[in-house]
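Before the break, one more example. Copy the sequence into your notebook; we will annotate it together after we see the structure.
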Amino acid sequence: MSQTVITTAFERWKAAQAVSGEAVTLDEFVFANVPDLDTDAPIDRNEVLPDAVQIVHRQAVSRTGVVNENAVVYSVVLGAETGDFAFNWIGLVNRNSGTLAMIVHAPLQQKIKTTAGQQGNVLTRSFLMEFNGAQTETAIDTPAETWQIDFTARMAGMDERQRLENIDIYGAGAFFGNGWLVGKTGSQYFVTSGSGYVAGLRAELAENQNITVTTRPVKVWLDVSWRGTLTSAWAVEPKITVAASLSDYEIDGIPHYVFALASIDADGNITDLRPRGTLSEQQARNVYLRQDRNLGDLPDVERARENLQLGKLALLDNIGFADVGAVPARGSLNDMNLNDITGSKYGFWYQSTIVNATPELNYPVASAGALLVFQNGANGPDGCTQEFRPYMSNVVYRRYYNKTASTDFAWSSWGYDISNVGGTINGAVGIIKNGAPLLIRSETQNQAVYILGQDYDKSNLYYIGRGGATFDVSFVSYKGGNHILLAADGAVKIYPSNGRDVLSSTRFVPTDYSNFDSLYQSKKTAVTAVRLGAAKDVSNGNGNLTDQSGYVLTMGGDFGANDGSYRMRPLQYLINGTWHNAVSA
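Here is what the structure looks like once it is written out:
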């Protein structure tokens, strides 16, 4: 009996080719005659090429072809011109690297060459190599059926006939007991073990299988295909898929048939969609009502009630909000995150404790209160608007949950309408109006009224306005400790702090300089010029001289007996534009 194996050397070399991005190329067959070869014993995957003396023939690969994405075929034709030799060992190699990829141990075979008077033989040997991604890694894209005999055509036809006959019995889908039933434990969804038919293919699930559900609403699908290889047994390959929609498809020539096992709504509720039993049993359930089900097998309860002319509430033990079109009273929010209360949970909710009203749970304010959730008619059942009404407050906070064609669902920030008793605006405000668009008025007489500016941490920065009972108006900086006061008596006062100056990039220009002038020394006592005043002649006939305070002698003379005279001029100085006579000189 022949033995076949893929070598470990090939696996290492294939990995290296993948790293370097090079194709996996196998291009030569090697034939050898190995003495004492046991064809029944398993082949060592570490086996190497036989000794050169045992190799009887080497020949390039004649044809390659792809069977499917994970299987390729290599063939060689030993023509009548090749021979004579015997072989019991065949290897497939990469000629450049010498890598031995695949080995066959077979009973001894003869290859005879055609010679004069003797007809030789023609042998074809093919290797089917299977590994993940074989078609991609070998870069082989020629279908094998283009050069090999399609001996599987009839068998495929037999399989298809059997599948269609099963559809006649089981329909598009049929399940037995709890086989393939979708269930839920806590938050974990799972599919129950059992059997069923999809498109005539019988699928078996040996044990319960957990599934991951990330978005809702969604459906759970059973995907089946009839798969195998050229040399293996064929079997149904089932696969569970969670998707909103799915239809039959084909990959690499293999048809895949799908059937919805269950639907899961936005709240996580499961609806079983499995037809149970054979097609005849399914049809019988649609035609007849079973006594032991006590009308529990009615397919459409509402239509049945209408046909019996029952009122909307007839025979209902409990009236629900949906029965009368009411907005549901949902109950306490407790520690629920408000981001989880979307449109599918519309209605009235309440929060009874401030402990749970935290920013982490996306409350707009730390307060007990009521939450109203209503669907906004957009983006399916989840699109909604939330209104939160704090306890003992007439402020209503509002936000919406929506999505666009280019964005996923997202919550807007909380906003609210300002009431006539105050509030906070979290955003820029523009006022476009002539006249006085902003009015600030005190509530009672002789009270402060001002605009207060604060930092992000609510510490005071400044205020502008009336700071107390007086009518003075101030511009005060808390950080600098300085301010400007517009006094009610008309005075303007500037109060710097910390010994700092009052600075101006231009001159102060008063209408009255007297106050300024009085502060300068040169305007008070400084002498800016000196001169002699008008001349005064004094006679000296009696020989006596007269001294006059503030005058200086400029000239004099004696012109005879009793006729002498002299001339004096007053000493004058200039102070602040005025000439003054010196008291004495």
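Residues 327-416 form one domain. The chain has five domains: 3-146, 154-287, 327-416, 449-495, 529-581. Try to locate both features in your own notes.
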